[in-house]
Structures are given as C-alpha cells and as structure tokens.
Design brief:
heterodimer, A: alpha+beta, Alpha-Beta Plaits, 3-stranded mixed sheet, 3-stranded antiparallel sheet, B: alpha+beta, 17 helices, 8 strands, about 45% helix
C-alpha cells in the first residue's frame, strides 16, 4: 500500500515523542546554562602554569626551558628567560620565565605542550566559559593569569594530579637523599685525617 | 574569468548569459546558477556552478578552495608530532581515523611497532568514529531531502553518546589528538570499556529504529532510487573509494584488502550495493554500521592488558631516517592516505594527504547530469564530503 512506509515511520516518531515523557534515555537535551553536565576528568581546554605553595612567583615550576615554545604547533607560546635564578621544588637553582604569554586566540588546545614538558609545569585547564569583549588584551594570557596553584590542578584532574604529585615527591625524596648523602660524604671527608701522600697536582694544561 | 557556459561549445548550446536567460532572448531558457558556498545544503563551504535547462542539469562545475588552510605546507614546516593535531582538522567528523592514518604512515616511515593493546584501542576508536560518521551522514542526507529535524536529531542523539566516550578518553569531543607514533597517548580511563560496551550494545536498537523510520519510506525511495547512479567502471576509473565504491558493487574495503592493524582478527562482512544510486549509498552505510558494531563487540571482548606505546618511540627530537612511506586506512569516507618523505630532519620533506572526500567529489558532474536540480543536493549529500578534508 502506498504510504505504508510513511505511516510506519510516523509510528516510530510518535514512539520517540511519547517515550521522551517516560524515558530518560530519549530525552537528552540539557538546558544549558541553567543545567550543566558534569565535567569529564580528561576534559581539556587552554593550558595553565602550575605553582606549588602560596606564592605564584616563588612556587612556579616552569624553568623557562622553552621546549613547549618550540613544540607548540601553532606557535602560541612566548617565553623570555630570566637573567637570575631561583630555587625550584628540589632546591636546585633554576631559571624562571620573566615573560610567559599564551595567546588563547591562537591556541588549539592540543595538549602537546603538556606532553613535552619535562617539569610538570604546564597542564590543561577545564574552564570553557571564556568569552570576552576585548579580543586583544583578554585573550593574551600572561604569567599572572596563567599561574594556578597545585590544589586547583588536584581539583580538576584528580587522578592525573595524584600520579604527578607522587612522582614529584619521589624525585624530591631522591634528590633530598642524594644531597644528604653528599653532605655526609663531605663531612666524612672533612673529618678524615689528611692523607700522607699528597694527591698529585692536576695535569698541567697543554700536557696531553 | 570565463564562465562554464562559455566553455560549452556553441554546437551543443546556444550562447547564454544570465541576462539573456532572464530576458528570454535567443529562446534558450538556460540558466546559470551558482549554488553555494553559503548555500544551506552544500555541506560546508562548497560551490557548484550549474547550468540548468528548466530544472534539468546540463553542466556542473564544482569550485573548491574556500576552506583551504595550507595543511600540507604547514605539515612540512612543523615537526612530525606537531602535525598530529592538524590532522584532527582535516575531516573534523572523524579525527580519530585521521590520527590513525597519519600515525600509521609515520610508523611505516620510522619502523615502529604498535603494542597489541594500542592496536585494539585504535580499532575501537576508529569503529566508533565510523558509527558516528555514518549516523550523522544519514541524518544530513535526510535533512537534504527535506526531512528537517527528526532523522538528524535521532542520529545526533546517538552520536552524542559516542562523542562523550571520546571526551572521557581523549579530553575533546571532536579534536581528539589521541594517537601517537607507536601507540596512543594515554590508557583507557577506569570504567571506559564498560561504558563503551553499553553504548555499542544499545546501538543496534537505534539502527532498528532508524531503519523502521526510513527504509520503507516512499518519499525517501522515490527521491533516492535511480538518482545519481555511478557505474562500476566509472567508480573504478575515477578511483572512488569507501561506501560510494561499494554501493556501486565493487568489493573493495581496505580493512579486508590490506589487513592493516589487526583487522584480520575480526569477523565482519563488507556490504555491497547493486545499483550505485543514492539509496544504495545510504543502505551501504546503514549496513556498515551494523558490521562496525560486530567488530566493536569482538574488539571489546578481546582487548588485552599491556603497554600502549612502543618504548622506542620518542616524543621530542623525533627524526625518522631518510625514506618515504605511504600509509592508508579505510576511513569512514573512503581511503585516507598520508604520503611522507623524510630527509632525516625533524620535519617531513614532503607531506601529502590523499583525501577521500575530494576524490569522491570528482565524479559529481557525472552523477548530476540530466538530473533535477533538487536531486543535485541529495547527490552531493550522498557523497559524504567534509570540506575541511577536500580543501585542506
């Protein structure tokens, strides 16, 4: 019969329409912004810089190695290395970025900066309501706007942050143990009596 | 600039212009119409110059390039890894298959081995991509025929569930940037496999519903059957690939031909069409979704534990030795290939994409000649193009 297929299809539509009153499965619309879906843990948006402790300047993990600047596919990161050094999380003196800018109007949220960073200093944010009326100043994020505490990272990516913290703590413990061992060895060497045979002087330059 | 009406020889057609057509001079009645690039039914910024005699199409010239973003040249100026997020933006419906094709070519170039678990993850994500691509294509096709809303919304409802899976795995719904040379970026999050199983097991229910909604619909049949016919010979000669080729009755699926990845372990069939018309293209895609569900169920059952990336692969300072490689996979739209030449530097010397959308579009005129102008829209919809890939 002509029109049978159409009627069958209409029955399907009616089933869906009526079903949307009883079945959650068929009613999938979310009334944003009044209603929001929970954020996925892996969700990513633009990158931010991590700092430990309270002070974003002292605790900033970035050592201005500029690897992310080189690897960034759309070249949206701009870094100027500092002249002086400050101690990093294990106490080793390191450079820090005196300028660290990310142009979010260029950034494509690909996460490559996060993957290549050897210092766990840059991570992906999950904030997405970032519209602004100023497309120049507000979209170019500087160091102060990018720096966010480690607690924030633990809040948005708990599983990943726990792993990172564990790894960093292990590194710190290792570095601490190493420093301690070195200090002990030094103290031991100082305490030992001076060897009777003097250590031969360094080979004079040009002797080879 | 010469118009296509000028290109037609006078013996075939009388000389025409828009003015003469509207004035009714020369008694021609021919009309040259520019469809697109902002036309709502042109699937992205695609333009066709069409010469019409009444409602019949006499000539059709596709005009490309409105979405050209210099993808290949950018690929030659960034590192191998740096091109990976750009491949997401080729065919933005299927970023995971684009990632796979590119990673596959680089792995061939650098001689990397993909661990078993990563291969399974790749198959799972690629088949999920195929499901959501075909589902939304069927929706768009129906939208082009005037079924505004219902089929598209049903398709998008299912697609959304798959995109949610992608987001919890890769962090992004569409620009996934998930695969890496020699494996994948991160392991599956806890509970992901169970969620995927649930989505995959519920998918046939959606397909039943979708088929009940549409397959026997008289309007769909009269709009699509016998429309835009591609013969076997034409499809082969024009190197058409993917569902369009199979709808013309040619048994050619790279998953079966090349057995790339681990596709030889799965039991699935390749649906073929008889007539090569729009209806066959639609049905081939619906049937392919059913086969993809089968592959997914097998892959989700068999996925082993283990590492997800080749320990030899490195992220920074990646320099494959000099040579060339062509990696191709069966993307949802057809054969997607990446051709790379390395000169030993961190950037490829040559980076070439073989996009299925562009090559499938080349026979648009052959399909449209003699058809009604309303059918042009449907035929274009059935090709399944994404201009991000055709223009690059």
């Amino acid at each position: 019969m002509l029109g049978e297929g159409i009627i069958k299809g209409m029955a399907e539509t009616a089933r869906n329409f009526l079903g949307s009153y009883v079945s959650e499965d068929r009613l999938t619309t979310v009334q944003y912004p009044e209603e929001r879906l929970p954020q996925k843990e892996a969700a990513r948006n633009f990158p931010f810089l991590l700092f430990d402790g309270k002070d974003p300047h002292i605790g900033l993990r970035c050592v201005a190695c500029q690897i992310c600047e080189k690897e960034c596919p759309p070249q949206c990161i701009y870094i100027v290395k500092s002249k002086d050094k400050k101690p990093d999380y294990v106490g080793k003196p390191q450079f820090y970025p005196s300028v660290f800018d990310i142009d979010t109007s260029v950034c494509m949220s690909c996460q490559i900066c996060v993957e290549v960073c050897p210092f766990e200093a840059i991570k992906m944010d999950t904030e997405y309501e970032l519209s602004t009326s100023d497309r120049f100043g507000e979209l170019l994020l500087n160091k102060d706007k990018l720096a966010k505490p480690n607690e924030y990272y633990q809040k948005i990516h708990p599983t990943e942050a726990a792993e990172v913290d564990e790894r960093l703590a292990a590194e710190k413990a290792k570095a601490g143990a190493k420093a301690k061992a070195e200090a002990e060895a030094k103290a031991k060497a100082a305490a030992l009596p001076k060897p009777t045979v003097p250590i031969p002087a360094a080979v004079p330059a040009g002797a080879k | 600039m010469s118009t296509i009406a000028d290109a037609v020889t006078p013996a075939e057609l009388p000389k025409l212009s828009l003015k003469s057509a509207s004035d009714g001079e020369a008694g021609s009645g021919l009309l040259e119409v520019s469809l697109g690039p902002q036309h709502p039914s042109t699937h992205g910024v695609f333009r066709m110059d069409v010469v019409l005699d009444g409602e019949r199409v006499l000539k059709l010239k596709p005009v490309f390039g409105y979405l050209h973003r210099n993808h290949e040249k950018i690929g030659e100026n960034t590192t191998y890894l740096g091109s990976m997020p750009y491949t997401d933006r080729l065919d933005y419906f299927c970023s995971l298959t684009n990632n796979w094709a590119y990673a596959f070519a680089v792995e061939k170039l650098a001689g990397l081995q993909v661990p078993e678990r990563a291969e399974y993850i790749r198959v799972i994500t690629a088949e999920l991509t195929r499901l959501q691509n075909h589902a939304s294509l069927a929706g768009f096709l129906l939208q082009d025929m005037g079924a505004s809303g219902t089929p598209l919304m049903y398709a998008f409802r299912e697609r959304e569930k798959i995109l949610d899976l992608f987001e919890s795995l890769t962090g992004a719904r569409m620009m996934c940037n998930y695969m890496r040379f020699g494996g994948c970026r991160c392991d599956l999050p806890a509970g992901w496999l169970e969620q995927t199983r649930q989505v995959v097991d519920n998918f046939p229910r959606f397909l039943d519903e979708f088929e009940a909604l549409l397959n026997e619909n008289e309007i769909l049949m009269s709009r699509t059957q016998g429309v835009g016919v591609v013969s076997r010979e034409l499809a082969i000669n024009a190197s058409i690939t993917g569902p369009m080729l199979r709808a013309a009755g040619v048994n050619y699926d790279i998953r079966k031909v090349d057995h790339y990845g681990i596709y030889d372990r799965f039991n699935f069939r390749v649906p073929l069409g008889d007539h090569g018309d729009v209806y066959d293209r639609y049905m081939v895609r619906v049937l392919e979704m059913r086969e993809s569900v089968k592959i997914l169920q097998q892959a989700l059952r068999d996925i082993p534990a283990g590492p997800i990336v080749d320990p030899k692969a490195k992220l920074r300072g990646f320099r494959p030795k000099a040579g060339e490689a062509y990696g191709r996979i069966e993307a949802p739209k057809g054969e997607l290939g990446f051709y790379l030449i390395s000169d030993g530097s961190p950037n490829p010397y040559r980076y070439r994409v073989r996009p299925p959308s562009l090559i499938n579009l080349t026979i648009l005129e052959d399909m449209c000649l003699g058809q009604m102008v309303a059918d042009v829209v449907v035929i274009l919809g059935s090709v399944d193009i994404v201009m991000g890939e055709a223009d690059r």
